[in-house]
Design brief:
The protein is of the alpha+beta class. Helix content is 17%, strand content 23%. The chain is built from 3 helices and 9 strands; from the N terminus they run ααβαββββββββ. Strands 1-9-8-7-6-5-4-3-2 form a 9-stranded mixed β-sheet, with no helix packed on it. The protein starts with a helix and ends in a 39-residue tail after the last strand.
Length: 272
């Protein structure tokens, strides 16, 4: 045994014996950790990047294919916005905000990325980490409420508080950046900054994680939008690699909103 470690362990044991209240707190904390479900490892979405697989048209359509759409419960004004976004996409003029590398994808799009994900569960917080871009979401499960309106502002990942219902993590996300700053997927779905998302996440079997979203947007929707996504656990031992999309970025967006393609020398291939 390492001598330093042995001395430290002995000192800690003595300290805990002399401070039973501290020892009880430590035992309670370990019990809280033991009660959390096992979401360890690396996970990937089981579908393509169409957010709402239940309403995609055509069936099996891909978000990167022109003409693919979904049916969120938009009101007439926002359905018209969606139609215009799809038309712009067909012309190659619909900008994806994350084309400017380093911009977080936002929520709920973070749960709709092709790259891998990790989940870190603690009694007081849950973290969602994604391979694509600098995406970190913090969900506070320590009993706190959302900050007062004067103390919050729209951000890409929003403000999330939640709790555990058995083995299901339930959390509400507000204060999200909306239209113009974030999209849900590349078919052109956008939300307003008044959106409120309730997410319920649980294991449906040992290696399959399910997320159910109830999305309310009083500015854009006529009803709640319900979406289900699933994630499959990779083989044990897999790891997420570093993602640095700002290096060798060959898809800048020009002033007209067109996503360009550059060659290795920085020349615009689209103009050729």
């Amino acid at each position: 045994m390492n001598r330093h470690f042995g001395v430290t362990a002995a000192a800690l044991a003595t300290y805990l014996c002399l401070n039973p209240a501290i020892a009880q707190q430590g035992t309670a904390a370990m019990r809280q950790f033991a009660e959390l479900p096992d979401w360890s490892g690396v996970w990937s979405m089981t579908s393509n990047t169409v957010f709402d697989q239940a309403t995609v048209d055509p069936p099996g359509g891909n978000a990167n294919t022109i003409g693919t759409r979904e049916y969120p419960p938009y009101n007439d004004e926002w359905e018209a916005k969606y139609a215009e976004n799809r038309a712009r996409d067909a012309r190659g003029e619909f900008p994806d905000p994350i084309t400017t590398c380093g911009t977080p994808v936002g929520y709920p799009r973070m749960m709709n990325q092709p790259g891998a994900m990790e989940f870190v569960l603690r009694p007081e917080q849950a973290w969602i980490l994604s391979e694509d871009g600098p995406n970190v979401m913090r969900i506070y499960t320590d009993g706190r409420s959302h900050p007062d309106p004067a103390d919050r502002w729209p951000t890409f990942m929003g403000e999330s508080v939640g709790h555990w219902e058995g083995d299901t993590l339930v959390f509400e996300t507000i204060s999200l950046r909306g239209e113009g700053a974030s999209i849900v997927d590349r078919t052109g779905i956008v939300l307003s900054d008044e959106v409120r998302i309730t997410t319920r996440m649980r294991l449906v079997d040992d290696d399959l994680l399910e997320a159910r979203f109830a999305i309310d947007d009083p500015q854009a929707f006529e009803d709640t939008w319900h979406v289900v996504k699933q994630f499959r656990r990779h083989e044990r031992g897999d790891r997420i690699i570093e993602f640095a999309c700002a290096e060798n970025n060959r898809n800048p967006v020009d002033a007209e909103g067109r996503t360009l393609t550059l060659d290795a020398a920085g020349n615009v291939l689209d103009a050729q």
